[in-house]
């Protein structure tokens, strides 16, 4: 891994955002919409339900914030690649002395930065608009955030690998992949609400343990380390799987000339 | 050839049932410009992409600076660069921003000075603060060349650098390429289907047709071999009757 290469690739991405501020709208607009919709729904339910329930509904706002960390990390990886495709810059990058590890490292940094921007914004707005403070979780947020970032990166690598393999027509996967898993990820409701068969799907996803853990921590103030350990183990498995898939697809892309096809789209 | 910068040996590439490059071999000596000439579909770009490691060969080998490309790709790429008419630098970035990013990727020392130097060399210093996406085709090509020259490459791959340029800009680009060869001793592999490019710029020509090499030699040797008085006539003849000539010339190269 070469940090100067990663720095250069990240710098290009930052230049892109400073040159075209309209891109920042995408970074701010959708998370804001989600926060407003779920936040006001939460407020409405709080005002119209009985004692005890209102507190639990605030979990929805916490879920919006944490889900966005995963989504932005995934987007960081997938959109990073697509930016090169859209600007016909792909061959310049892959003909430069950039290793797979350097490239992926840069996408991770970009994913982290994207997640950081939206998290800060959502945290501030949820405090102002709904008096919901995610920082009541204090240090317990760290294992949640780290695990969601890692799973987001893994999903991003899988999305990109599928796009490379299936071509530009599959670009929509960059946005769709996180939503394929969202119904089973226990983001807004507990795993137990799912039918038994789907509960197994949920249990195979590291993020379901994180969202369950977040609700548990908000309710009791207690962090269930066994859940965090399972999530971390699954994350390492998915990250390794995504890395293997990425390398395999890139090798196939070189064999089939897919990178050059992408570049001439 | 002693100490060739690039050695391509029995290189082949098949995409499914289509043979894009068929058992091609050539070498380029230090400071030499070798032209890969051929019609569309001759296999020139695929050959260049294999030399860059972007496309994996089906057979054969590529050695750059005497080292195996497959095994030492990254360290080799640091000493190479490439410019293609089929690629662009990100259009949203300013010219200097694009050059800065690639300068860092290639670890160019004294980067700011080098950026000014290459912009001046290509006579585009006035574009430094312009948005890359707003450049004309000619300016864009020269920006790509600036990027390709940033790291003072020992081997420069130019894939149809004058395609889509007007004659005036194409002439300027050819002159710059010749100047780089004279001043920096850069070795180049230059693909084109533009006869002027090849005649003016290249020391030797590899004539390709449908993935095969028909003939390798200097421009006068090519004319003599095909018994024509201009490369353009050779080109048209090969393009129209290439298979026949390929059979006739088997073993000529």
Defining traits:
heterodimer; A: 265 residues; mainly alpha; B: alpha/beta; Rossmann fold; 6-stranded mixed sheet; 40% helix
| CATH class (first level) name of the largest domain in chain B | Alpha Beta
Average predicted confidence as pLDDT of chain B: 89
- What separation lies between the terminal Cα atoms of chain A? 30 Å
- In quaternary terms, these chains amount to heterodimer
- Structurally, the number of domains of chain B stands at 2
For the CA atoms, what is the radius of gyration of chain B?
18 Å
Poorly predicted spans of chain A: none
Please write out the topology.
The complex is a heterodimer of chains A (265) and B (253).
Chain A: H1 3-19, H2 22-48, H3 53-57, H4 59-86, H5 90-94, H6 100-130, H7 141-166, H8 173-181, H9 196-203, H10 206-220, H11 225-256, H12 258-263
Helix pairs in contact in A: 1-6, 2-4, 2-6, 4-6, 4-7, 4-10, 6-7, 7-8, 7-10, 7-11, 10-11
Chain B: E1 6-15, E2 18-28, E3 33-37, H1 44-52, E4 59-64, E5 67-68, H2 73-77, E6 80-84, H3 95-105, H4 111-121, H5 137-149, E7 155-159, H6 167-184, E8 187-192, H7 195-201, E9 204-209, E10 212-217, H8 219-226, H9 231-248
Parallel strand pairs in B: 3-8, 3-9, 6-7, 7-8
Antiparallel strand pairs in B: 1-2, 1-4, 4-5, 9-10
Helix pairs in contact in B: 4-5
